[in-house]
Amino acid sequence: LLQIGSIADSWADLYPSIHWHSDALAPSRRLLTEPERHRVRQASYRYWLYSLAYHNASYTRYQRLQPPIVRSRAALLRGWSSRELADLLDFQSILRAVLEMYVCPSNGTIICRHKERYGDNSMPVVINQLVGYGPQQSKHYNFHHLNNDGRVMQLQSEESWQGWGDDVSHYYVIEDMLKLHPGQVMQLYNFIVNGSGKLGALEVGQMGGNHKVAVEAFVVGLGEWFDNNGETLAETIRLVLTERGEETEMVDGVGSIVAEGGD
Q1: For the chain, what is the radius of gyration of the CA atoms?
Q2: Which among 39, 88, 114 has a CA at the least distance from the CA of 232?
Q3: Phi (first) and psi of residue 226, to 5 degrees
Q4: What are residue 180's phi and psi, to 5 degrees?
Q5: To 10 degrees, what angle do helices 2-19 and 182-189 make?
Q6: What pLDDT was estimated at residue 77?
Q7: Which tens digits make up the pLDDT trace of 144-160?
Q8: 126: phi then psi, degrees, rounded to nearest 5
Q9: Which of 67, 74, 121, 224 has its CA 20 to 30 A from that of 263?
Q10: What is the rounded distance in angstroms from the CA atom of residue 204 to the CA atom of residue 192?
Q11: Backbone dihedral region for residue 259 (phi beyond 0: left; psi -120 to 50: alpha; all else: beta)
């Protein structure tokens, strides 16, 4: 319980830099108030509970729409207010942003980072498409830098320069990854960004900075049920809000926790 509480505190610490990440929002960045930190921690606990209950090997992609399972998921969420459900969606948006920016960046994100660092013409990025999960069987994309003579060069950089697909395939990667509970996402974030901790048997530095291989190995260790089986929390929240007569298209949850006037 102490570890879960510590991880929830870490999410409260990280929330401002992720929520106000863009240059346009940076001037608004601030520390959270204590009531806001409480709401982040509460959302973290509840997201963790939902993930343990419904994002596991007992619920494959073929079972997710079965009426008894949908009713079971909705029953858990009906005990929370609409504001608390919006906070859950807000918290999920933070997890999504961490996954998209740091853990599983898209091809486009990697190319943008490459251009920011090296410009348009130096050290071109080459995409190799493989098949399947795993270090030797990536179902997404690998990025390598080439020397002028075409040989793969060793990068001395904090970047792994490996993307997780174009916009469409990347979307489904993130939907899969959102099944992870907050502790797992924080573990991945710390491993990649802070260079701390380990992923299963992998320790920092063992993969030579190849973060994608490390993340794929972590995912493979979760079992076959994880692949191509997106998260179900967001759709279940919208189901419950619809039952309450809420305008679900107006409730995306983003910024709910720090909305002006939030208690």
Answers
A1: 19
A2: 88
A3: -70, -35
A4: -65, 145
A5: 60
A6: 98
A7: 333 333 333 333 333 44
A8: -115, 135
A9: 74
A10: 8
A11: beta
